[in-house]
Amino acid sequence: MRRAGMRRAGMRRAGMRRAGMRRAGQVVLAAAIVVAGCGDEPQGREETGLEGLRLEAVQPRIIVPGSQIEISGQSFLDRPLGVSWLRLQGTYADGPIDAYLPAQFVDFEHMQIEAVPGVLALLGPTTGSFDGRAQVAIDFVPTGQRHASFPTAVTLELREHLTPTLDRIDAASEIFVNEPIEIHGAGLLLGGNEGTTYAVVEGCFSPAAGDGTCEPIVPVEILVRPAAPFDREHGIFAFSPRITGIAPGAFTGQVTLRNEHSDGERSVSGEQAVSYTLQPTRVIRIGDGNGDDEGDAVGTLGRYIPVHGGGFVSPEDGVGAGTVLRFLGTYTADEFPEPLPVDLELVPEVVDGRTVRYVVNEDDALAAAVDVRYSRGTFVGDVVPIVDFEGQALEGEPTAVTFELRPVRQVVYVQFNPTYVESLRLFGLRAADPQIRERVLAVLARDYEGVGVELRTEPPDDYALYATIEIAGPDPNGLGLLGYDNTPGKDTGNRRLNDRIGGVNAQTLEGGYPGFGGVFMESLFTFSLHPPADTVKSSDVATATFDEIFDPFRPDRGRPVTSEELAAGSPPMLDSAAACPGVDRATQRACAVFVLGSVVGSTVSHELGHSLGLADPTGERFHNTGDQPNRLMDPGAARSFEERAELMGQGPSRFCRGAYAYLREILPTDEPEPGIERPGC
Predict the structure, then answer these.
(1) Is 216 helix (H, G, I), strand (E, B) or coil?
(2) pTM for the full predicted model
């Protein structure tokens, strides 16, 4: 739903409710469920989400004041529904202990405890070894019941300070500037509030272009990062240009480690002698492939293109420091056989001394020479790295590369928020979360088939520019909206690739419109003739069909689906609602999953369509005019529940012919159009 269509959208009629009522209402609702269980209708145990509670690991094993303790496992629960603890039961500091440490929810697989003095005091002495069993304990607030994982054997050490040791340094004899140098030892600090480990490098340097004199170097401190999370025995530091500069040459010296705790305590290790020959900066290959095959180096607008080599310099290395890539060769567009000469410099992002990545964008020299949004073509030539540091510039040797450019794709991260999961309780379908997600994504893939849209369920790390759409629980705007695109203004032509449909948008708020965007699960109860207490009000679009689908599972009406029930077997995922609502529980369950996934998926497709510039790409309207069957970009009041759910011969909703042609134009793809009939616009 866009702002211009809010007055016409029937979903707004679901009514106002105060922000924050839902959270308090969940406790009231749970109490009502317990009371309702005394009636004549069969009532099932509510799926708490804690049935699969499990503890897998507690890290790090050595803890100092300020450490961030991470608890990994499964089926964790956020406040206010769950209050979480890490229970340690065994021996500590030569005495028995049974302690509960308060844990903070991160996601359903991770929790954290910050080792602050108040938490450590729950254990007793500030130093000692714990040997025993650990459990995750979660108090389920609606019932007051405590759930606990099976015990896991754990050994932990608490230290007030750590002294580093340096046993070995691994690096080839020939390295580049900013080469990652691996160290082996013990007692490394992990950063954050516990403190930092530094590598202190000193010695002398003889430039390759010099007279052979080894000039002494003032000791340089370089941050050491853990080679892996929570690893106190292996670290990596970069051979910074602050040590020798960027010129090739020979370095001879030694390395020591120094720990600096957050309370100011310092300690040092013994030293290790090192000797390196520094090579000039070079590019080895471009793209994600291996070896010398550059055919997979493909760029699209907003995508990162990795460039691998050595000796790359970051702006973080000092004032005026950086890396530029110069491309020399020809570019041949697919539509024009005549190659065009290329000589341009591009500024990449430095990942580390071995890798930089260039993001195709519309603001640099490449965009000035080529239409990076729609052009198809291939660059063939050389890339030359140029690095700068403290007024010194160094040009590396040219490397032959091939680089392909392809039309823009809209990458979309579909983010299922924790509040979405918790809102499934109201439908009695929390245990069916994976199947519902599968259906949502299937609807999205179907709606955008033949369009250059790529769906992701994890935040992309290969694109700098991508859209995010959040699926959440209640509507934070308090308006009972099913969905709301809170991106600023109409993006005709999809000029923005990084829209975020979700969270709060301050610019939208300042314009006097609702600030929170996304798709809101609890607002679906506006279709119910008897919605759960303290959610939304029933509206004039409510239908008995909705209740026929979901009442058998709602905790206030029927028996929620449980994980045990799903494990016992059920019909396969439905590909249509022809058998719905079903006469047996297994079919009813499959129908509820299909219907809920269809309604949510269709709503996500609708809101994503808004962010791409629909429904009126050549005008100012945000919705189609009139009311025709199965048009995806019709206003909310014109799209019945049955159409959204694909029930009773209605649906599925489609982009109308003109809208789909527009999407194919702005997001071209080699995929063919699906052979389906579309409504007119």
Answers:
(1) strand
(2) 0.84
- Cα separation, 3 vs 17, in Å, equals 19
Q: SS3 of 117, please?
A: helix
**Alpha helix stretches (DSSP H) within 511-656:** 544-550, 563-567, 585-611, 641-645
What are 62-116's pLDDT values in tens digits? 999 999 999 999 989 888 889 999 999 999 998 999 999 999 999 989 999 999 9
DSSP 163-213: --EEEEEE--SEEETT-EEEEEEE----SGGGEEEEEEEEEEEEETTS-S-
Q: How far is CA 559 from CA 25, 93, 191, 563, in A?
A: 20, 49, 49, 13
- The Cβ-side half-sphere exposure at 619, using a 13 Å CA radius, reads 10
**Whole-angstrom Cα distance, residue 285 to residue 294?**
7
Residue 94: Cβ within 10 Å count:
8
Q: What percent of the chain shows pLDDT beyond 90?
A: 72
CB 48 within 8 A of CB 141: no
| Angular region, 489: left φ>0, alpha ψ -120 to 50, beta rest | left
Chain segment 307-322, per-residue pLDDT in tens: 999 999 999 999 889 9
Q: Give the list of residues 6+ apart from residue 186 with CB closer than 8 angstroms, or none.
A: 164, 165, 167, 232, 233
Backbone angles phi, psi at 184, to 5 degrees: -125, 135
Torsion angles phi and psi, residue 262, rounded to 5? -65, -20
The one-character DSSP state at 285 is E
What letter represents residue 341's amino acid? P
DSSP 343-406: EEEE-PEEEETTEEEEE--SSSHHHHHS-TTT--EEEEEEEEEEEEETTEEEE---EEEEEEE-
Distances (CA, A) of 137 to 52, 155, 375, 419: 12, 18, 56, 21
Which two structure tokens, joined as six digits, stand for 467? Answer: 């859209």
> Amino acid identity, residue 323?
T
**What single-letter DSSP state applies at residue 157?**
E
Note whether 214 and 205 are within 8 A (CB): yes
